[in-house]
Design goal:
This protein is mainly α. Helices cover about 80% and strands about 0% of the residues.
């Protein structure tokens, strides 16, 4: 595959995109897991599916939208979904977790309607559902790179605030943090990363890349910063192994990346257990 990467542009696009996603997905995933909001990624991925289906429908029925990159509408829907989640969390103050299944259900419902209007599934939609090595274009790569730069810059600039928000939101409010604004910024970042990741991992599996490397890292890391570093390391490893496996076995990369993540998690659990037995 290494020789093929230098020969074929679509493999370069897929490999570079995968490496970028292997950083930003676990990076935000660490904050998501600590805040016990793992299902948010699932909810927003289903909203993104609605945007993708809507884009494919528009490109099929409206001439002026022919050739529209579905990633744009997928990102738009994902960001709008994140805003709705924050709004519903404010409405259901004592039952904030209700916001997630509400948006998830809405995303699935709207997506099914658009898919039905577009006369069912097609090859393009399947590539978004489960990921595709050949579907990543150079324009997708540049867009994902811009998203990655924005996300990493915001996490670096707002690290202390996001850390405090994740571990002790009440103290953050008492110390004068604008928690609503931080929640909003964080949710928009998650929405953008999910929309960016779907090309490689697939809409239905993208949440796995945000949570499984973090779950593995938490077994062996000491402290939150170490958890982030190990999460990114495991995310990169899962992407590389998954892409190579997908290339040689002719499989959807989403499945191979997720199974690589699960294998890493099992190794981390076994290593931790071995350490405890030694002690």
């Amino acid at each position: 595959m290494i020789e093929a990467i230098f020969q074929y542009e679509f493999l370069q696009n897929a490999f570079l995109t995968g490496m970028i996603i292997g950083v930003i997905a676990p990076l935000l995933g660490a904050f998501i897991v600590v805040r016990r909001l793992s299902l948010i990624a699932d909810a927003l991925s289903h909203v993104t599916l609605s945007g993708i289906a809507a884009s494919l429908l528009l490109s099929k029925t409206v001439v002026m939208f022919n050739g529209l990159n579905p990633l744009w509408l997928g990102m738009t829907f994902s960001v709008i979904g994140s805003l709705f989640i924050e709004r519903l969390r404010a409405v259901y103050k004592h039952y904030q977790e209700l916001a997630i299944p509400i948006i998830l259900s809405g995303g699935i419902g709207i997506g099914v309607i658009f898919i039905s209007l577009a006369d069912g599934f097609n090859t393009d939609l399947f590539s978004y559902l489960f990921g595709s090595v050949s579907a990543v274009s150079r324009s997708d790569l540049w867009l994902i790179l811009v998203i990655a730069i924005i996300v990493i810059a915001l996490v670096v600039l707002l690290y202390k605030e996001l850390f405090l928000l994740s571990f002790d939101e009440e103290y953050g409010k008492a110390s004068g943090l604008s928690t609503k604004a931080l929640h909003l910024i964080f949710m928009v970042m998650v929405a953008l990363v999910i929309a960016a990741s779907m090309r490689i991992v697939g809409i239905l599996l993208v949440s796995s890349l945000m949570t499984l490397p973090v779950a593995a890292a938490m077994r062996i890391a000491r402290g939150f910063k170490q958890t982030i570093l190990f999460s990114i390391l495991f995310g990169e490893l899962a992407v590389v192994v998954g892409l190579f496996s997908a290339f040689y076995l002719d499989l959807a990369p989403g499945g191979t990346i997720v199974m690589s993540s699960i294998l890493i998690l099992l190794v981390a659990i076994a290593f931790k257990k071995w350490q405890s037995i030694r002690k």
